[in-house]
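>> Question from a student workshop board

For tomorrow's exercise we were told to take the sequence and the ligand below, predict the bound structure, and bring the output to class. My setup keeps failing. Could a helper post the expected result so I can at least see what it should look like? The ligand is iron/sulfur cluster.
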Amino acid sequence: MAISVFDLFKVGIGPSSSHTVGPMRAARLFALRLQREGLLMRAARLRCELLGSLGATGRGHGSDRAVQLGWMGHEPDTVPLDAIPGWLQAVRDTHRLALLNERDVAFDPDHDLVLDGRRSLPFHPNAMTMAALNASGEVLLSETWYSVGGGFVVSQDVADHADRQADIAPGPDTLPLPFHSAAELLALCQKHGLSVASVMRRNEGHWRDDQATREGLQAIWQAMQACVRRGCGIDEVHQGGLPGELPGGFQVRRRAPQVRQRLLNTSDNTPDPLQHMDWVTLYALAVNEENASGGRVVTAPTNGAAGIVPAVLHHAMFHLPHATEERMEDFLLTAAAIGLLCKENASISGAEVGCQGEVGVACAMAAAGLCAIMGGTPEQVENAAEIGLEHHLGLTCDPVGGLVQIPCIERNAVGAVQSIHAARLALLGDGRHRVSLDQAILTMKQTGADMQSRYKETSLGGLAVNIVAC
Ligand code: SF4
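>> Workshop helper replied:
Here is what the output should look like for this input. Compare the format with yours to find the bug.
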């Protein structure tokens, strides 16, 4: 499937792209299919099973709530966050749900929605099966969907007929400058004398004109800034838990507003040359705390790893000289090129390959974007991405309490600083290096396949079993 920059960077809802955004999109698609096939007005009850990683950590990741919102017809980028608690409480109280806001059906979240973390389906660890029943209890429609990371969803039909995928969505070869590996991307850059961002720009032309791409990138950058502002407490914060605290019962406090205040108080009179790093940390904390509270964030490439790319882009735009809109666009396009290579050749799903596929990939993307706008050649950009990914290989996903908080929030802050380090390290060289990005991506895929499932977003191993709620 051909992947656009706007498939990787999407405005969504926290706390998880695979466990919140994906299930919401799949549930809405299921409801729309009911409507398309003339079954909507015959539906009397809904059921859903969340399997594998969705079953194991779906509660903490908000998958159960996301499914209900999707059935109601809401989309992750536009659902009004403040209305959600009231809608879900009404379903809980009445055991009725407004399917696509048109058809009132029975749905009891305690009985009709089952989370089964022990059962997995072979195609992908994030599986969900939904069914609509008529008044006699007969199944009108039953569908299985997979949430494959970064908010992408795949139906069972597509999973069963990988050979037909080109009929359903165009493959990369339909793009003006197709590439399937970093080596092919570098060859294209060399052959046409283009930067990585310019190759991506040409390919984005497959979907829309250049002006529309520029406007879309500007909108993504605006959404990232708005998220940082809310997370820092500058604009009204999305309140997903107690004041100053994140939801979930682990008493994880929001730190970004205090960190910002502290930085503002000290920035004029400190000679600390590394204080820029503290600002990068702040930006990442702000995004991931907003994400953990169910706020609005941009997938980059996932929600759990959503802080790294915006933190490094804020650094580039606000702390480096010569910030321009064009540089912002080049940053995002270059980062997207790396993200799509990782998605196409391995995975960006923590449930499939662990956190190396989320924070590791985000680090590689941000490193490449920064290297590019600091004047890196395509070879140096590829090197920066490789450094960013290589040093996250083997990183497990073990979210405490099934929440996207510990280790995720701090991990983004650390990953953002590592991105800057990777970009600068690459710029110190001439682009020649021993391990290629393609080799690092292949290694991530193989390491992910070898990783036990308890380290892949099930919260059955690692930190998740050693930290308990107070
Ligand atoms: S540990 Fe990493 S992969 Fe797992 S939920 Fe957190 S950010 Fe995502």
